[in-house]
Amino acid sequence: TQLLEQSPQFLSIQEGENLTVYCNSSSVFSSLQWYRQEPGEGPVLLVTVVTGGEVKKLKRLTFQFGDARKDSSLHITAAQPGDTGLYLCAGANAGGTSYGKLTFGQGTILTVHP
Amino acid sequence: DAGVIQSPRHEVTEMGQEVTLRCKPISGHDYLFWYRQTMMRGLELLIYFNNNVPIDDSGMPEDRFSAKMPNASFSTLKIQPSEPRDSAVYFCASSLTMGGEPQHFGDGTRLSIL
Q: Considering CB atoms only, which of B42, B100, B107 is closest to A107?
């Protein structure tokens, strides 16, 4: 079973601050996805990173996939109250009969105070 | 476009009762997933289907849980008999393919077993 350790579990910051969320594993993933979930709703995909070392930017959000495809990070610049939510990373199995099956991290609950 | 539709949104029932959760995936998506989300264990994959055929049910906790997909537009997750520890939010998701494709989640069923 592949495990994906996500940290921190909780993050409470003031508007305008920067933050980074990490996902780490000892397993190699074929790709890694980041989702955002709001209360009462299902997770919604933010980005997929596929290539080792890949960096993707989505406005104030920067996503990075580790060179060995075992870890990833999400960096938010100048956080806003609208960024508040649960952030989930999910790694896709790299091979075998479970190819593409997602393993989710525990999630990071982000609260941005005005 | 209609997203993944789940029903009911909330279910409260007494232990020992049968519970049936329903899901309509996005039309044209070949993969359907059932997940369970709790604070303690995060988002866990229970089972997934490809073209209506169950592929991996290794996440199903025990024989009290069963899932079916009689056609491409409908799936059920059944718990019989239900127990208080089954209380969680259950999500259905669908995707076009495995590996890198986004999974589209419904809004979930919040299940409370008294």
A: B42
Q: What is the mean pLDDT of residues B29-34?
A: 96
What pLDDT, in 10s, does the model give residues B73-91? Answer: 999 999 999 999 999 999 9
Q: Which chain A residues are closer than 8 Å to B32 by Cβ?
A: none
Contact assignment for A101 to B48 by CB distance below 8 Å: yes
Does residue A34 contact residue A56 with C-beta atoms inside 8 Å? Answer: no
Rounded distance, CA A18 to CA A85, Å?
15
Phi/psi at A90 (nearest 5 deg)? Answer: -145, 125
Task: Say if the Cβ atoms of A107 and B43 lie within 8 Å.
Answer: yes
Give the Cα separation of B53 and B35 in Å (integer): 17
pLDDT, tens only, A43-87: 999 999 999 999 999 999 999 999 999 999 999 999 999 999 999
Question: In one letter, which amino acid is A106?
Answer: Q
To the nearest 10°, report the CA torsion of B63, B103, A78, A82: -80
Distance CA B106, CA A68 (A): 32
For chain B, what is the mean pLDDT?
95
Element (H, E) at B63: none
Q: Using the CB atoms, write b or e for A68-82: b if 16+ within 10 Å.
A: ebbbbbbbbeebeee
pLDDT above 70: percentage of residues in chain B = 99
Which of A58, A60, A64, A30 has the alpha carbon at shortest distance from A46?
A: A58
